[in-house]
Design goal:
The chain has 343 residues and is an alpha/beta fold. Helices cover 41% and strands 18% of the residues. The structure holds 5'-O-[(R)-(carboxyoxy)(hydroxy)phosphoryl]adenosine (KG4) and zinc ion.
Amino acid sequence: MNKRNEDLIILGIESSCDDTSAAVLKNHTILSNRSAGQKVHEQYGGVVPELASRAHQQHMVPVVHAALSDAGVGLNEVDAIAVTAGPGLLGSLLVGVNFAKSLALATGKPLLSVNHMEGHILAHLIENNQYPVALRFPFLCLTVSGGHTQLVRVDSPLEMTVIGETIDDAAGEAFDKAAKILGLPYPGGPLVDKYGREGNPLTYSFPEPKMPDLQFSFSGLKTSFLYFVEKQRAADPLFAEKERNNLCASIQHAIVGFLLKKVRLAAQQEGIKQIAIAGGVSANSYLRDSLSAMALREGWDVFLPRFEYCTDNAAMIAMAGLYQYKKGVFAGQDLAPTARMKI
Ligand code: KG4
Ligand code: ZN
């Protein structure tokens, strides 16, 4: 089953939250990466799991077709099918896993089970990123998404250790909740980024969470932001609208400042100067700029993934699948998704 010294083509499938994605990878190069988002959740201010599963069912076949056709690759040329098995919303994961299992059964292709968070990190090994400096092991990865905030020491594609994580909200949630407080639609992270670029990050200050070692916490920051905005609104009901840009810039400054403080501590502790970021929040321009500035001061090499590999995508799942394939770790028809899967 295991091919050696030949081109490997992996079809990746991702459906852990609200994006249905499929991608085709040839060795370390992405040939296609297609996604269908789900607008249906906007009106509810967050992802509604049942609606997400139904939308995945509708999108899966067309998205996989589109990815194969963009890549100019026939299903018969695919060497293996990689699918996200967790962590994520169980109903959403079930759609991807069952589809991938059926496709594997029908085509006789091997199946690869991928951990979504490992996928975010291994997106750095996709050659399309075209990093000016080659990424070497070990590196540190700050993984910041809607459900996770982790500092991970990566010793090889298959050896990762979580050295720090959040005890409550994830960084992405902190962005989304701040946006909600300001009356912005879900997901608010990209909007806080957009409006924050127009504001002054030093207009308002919020207390930095006091957490030991490499632990994160964002719930206190969210509460102080909520109380502050509510108090100002009581005096001027249009306060949040008038001050939107400065509020976005200031809360972003607080979240990013806290994240980077822990990154610096982790780098010192581990003696590592290769620093990467991954997950949806790694698309944030203030985080990218601030990390780059910190890297200059600290003498680090930083690795900022291309935007299409930051938020949920199947390219990263195919990339992680390739390493499972090389290791010879295949999943069977008994593969079942796991909502809470650890790295
Ligand atoms: O990795 P991801 O796409 O999905 C999960 O695995 O959770 O991350 C989604 C999170 C959301 O909370 C979203 O608001 C946030 O990433 N996000 C951003 C930006 N783009 C996405 N947060 C801040 N700035 C952005 N530009
Ligand atoms: Zn994700």
